[in-house]
Structures are given as structure tokens and as C-alpha cells.
Amino acid sequence: MFTLIRTTIVVASIVTFMIPAAASADWDQDKESREWDKKEFNRDETNTAAIELGPRPFFLINGMSKSKLQKKLESCEKGPFHKTNFSIGHRGAGMMFPEHTKESYEAAARMGAGIIECDVTFTKDRELVCRHSQCDLHTTTNILEIPQLAAKCSVPFTPYDAATGTPASARCCTSDITLDEFKMLKGKMDAFDPKATTVAEYVGGTAEWRTDLYTSRGTVMTHAESIQLFKKLGVKMTPELKKPSVQMPYEGDYTQQQYAQQMINEYKSANVDPRDVFTQSFNLYDMQYWLENEPRFAKQAVFLDDRVYTDPRFEASLADMEAIKAQGVNIIAPPMWALLDLNAYGEIIPSAYAEFAKAAGLEIITWTFERSDLRNGAVNEKGNATWYYQTIGAAIKTDSDMYRVLDILAKDVGILGMFSDWPATVTYYANCMDIK
User: What is the extent of the structural domain holding 60?
Assistant: First the structure.
């Protein structure tokens, strides 16, 4: 992928992607349908349902140092609060609910997320389901506790070897089982115990700052089921086409293009307005496929930019961002640390990446809020900053400091939206600052 992106950027003006046309042409395919207006992001024709934010936003605000921001946030404690597209449910509400489950999605909507994510992958019989990775079932579900399904895992459970220090392991993929078998699973918190000697121990390991309180139900979802649920909840949708863990074409005849088209077809079959769908991919080939074959869905597709941490040669530049924009990409989404830096005074400021992206006319979404344990700040006892705050770790002393980060991302960087593992925190901020 690194070579793909770099090569594409260098020769963006001459590259033509040769991708077969989509089988279906139900939607208008003319050039005008590729144009995108930022106002579409905040478009909302659904009724505004009552939402509940719970105590966490207030807890964080009460822990902030006295400042204009703290005073402003404190002044909004009585609301009113409503859903906002600025608040995006990352896999639902994964900080406390098993990710990509019905319960997690419902919790995200209840906390005011206007957009919710289903990461899309496929089963052995090529049905689309919601999972962060094709091969994460051993840490996100109870598959190892169901003998007939555990027997089908790509790599069976192996206990911790104390003599060699080899951690416990397993590898279970959606492509190991059929859709019917997938529906037998129950979602759990994404975790495992590397020193487990039994399956029962292995499926534990939930981080102490998360919880297993809401794991008694973890209803796994197909992609099609997520669409129907999101329609019922009155939220927009942001499916991410996950990179397959199996070799493509799968079984010799299921291509990446068919996979990308199948995902779009499920929205069309459900009569979802393309303006309510923000497709995502780390793969520029997927983006180009949608641009050529499904422009009404592609014009607000989100390019997830992982070059900042996967390509050691990557260096942000205006030319780089302009080349991405020239390929038809309107929204770019790096991890939030890539958008921030510290100045000589230790103050958080927009990064060069952020400045170049905006100068090139790209809109920005970022990830992921509420996915780090910041109870003791962003730097651990060894002096290492947590991943999502790696460029600004020294400035994050408490969990309440995350609101300063969000404020800078919203006002100085100008992001369109924030993925969050606990949407209430972002929803509160967006409502207080009158961000739609």
C-alpha cells in the first residue's frame, strides 16, 4: 500500500485507474454527481430525538484548569443537547460496550452521535459483517468458547508458555466461518490475556479503565443489519471497507472490486440516500473504484491516511495533499496526533500536515477520541507518550486535558468531525460550541 500511495501521488496527473465498471447503474453517474459541498456533512432531515450524555463530560469539565474554555464548557451544563454529525461513533461506543454490536451502536446514538461506523469485512460465504478486522474474532467475540467454531479458527488457541515466555495466542477470522456461524457469536470487549493458560483466561484481559459491565449482551451485526438499525436510529453511516486478511481474489474469483461494490450495493438495496453515507478506506484503489463507478457515494468518501505511521519516508507537503485532492478525494482522515504539534513554548498547535491539507482544499475528519487511558496524563512512567497523543504528550497532564485538544482540533485545525469511543464527550463539546 505504501508504494501504491507514493506512486499515485508522484504521477497523479497522468495515472488512469483501469477498473471495471460496476454491475449496477441505478444512480446518476454524470460528472456533476462527483461534486461535493461541505454543507452536505451537516445536512440532517431526521427528527431530533432526545439524547443522554451521562456524567462523563461533566466529570472531565470539572477536572479542567480554570480557563475561558473551561468556563464556556461549564456554562453549557444544562443543555439543551441534540445529536450532531461532529460526533462520530467509532465502532459504536467501544469504551464501555463491545464494539460493532447492536448495543454499542444504540449507545452511540443515545449519546448524540450523528454518524456511526460499521467496519466492513466478509465471511467464508462472502457475506458482509461488521468487524474491525477480518481476523479479530478471538479478541472481540466468544468464538473460542464455542468448541465447534473454535475448531474452525485459522490458528487454534495456544496457552502461555512460562518456560519460554511465549504469550498465549489464537487467530480466528470471519472468513473461517459462514454467516450463520457468525450469528452464533456474542461480542465482548476487545481484549485478551497474554499469560492465559486456558480459554476462559484468554478471553478476559479487559483494560482496567474500560469495563465488562455491558457484556452480558453483545449482538453481532451484519452490514445490512447495521444499515437498517442506523436508519431506525436516524443517524448517518460511515462504513470502512477493511483490508482483507486473506489473499485476494478470495478463493480465486472474489475480487477487491467486487468486495467494494458489494458494500455499496447494500446501501442501494436499502434505498439509503448517498448523502447519508461516508464510505472509508485506507486504500486509494478503493477510493478510485468508487469515484469511477459510484460517484454519488464517492464524492464524500473518506481517505484514511495511515502513511504518517506506516511509511517512514512520508513527509507532509502541499504538493502531496494537492495530488490527493486532484484524484477526487474531498475528505482526508489521519489519526489526530498527525494534526497537532507543540511549539517552542509547549503549546498545542496545528501541525504542518494539517496546514497543508487545508491549503489543498481537503476537509478533515480524525480519530480517535476517548481511546486512551489519560487518567495520569499522556506520558507513562517510562517517558513514552500514548499512541493517539504522541506528538503532544507532554502537554496532556490529566484526562480533562482532552477537551483542550478537541477545542484546538475544532477551531484551529477546523475538522469536520471526530471519531470517539465514547461519543457523549464529543457531543457535549459540539453542542456547547454550536457545531452542527
Answer: 2-10+27-132+220-432
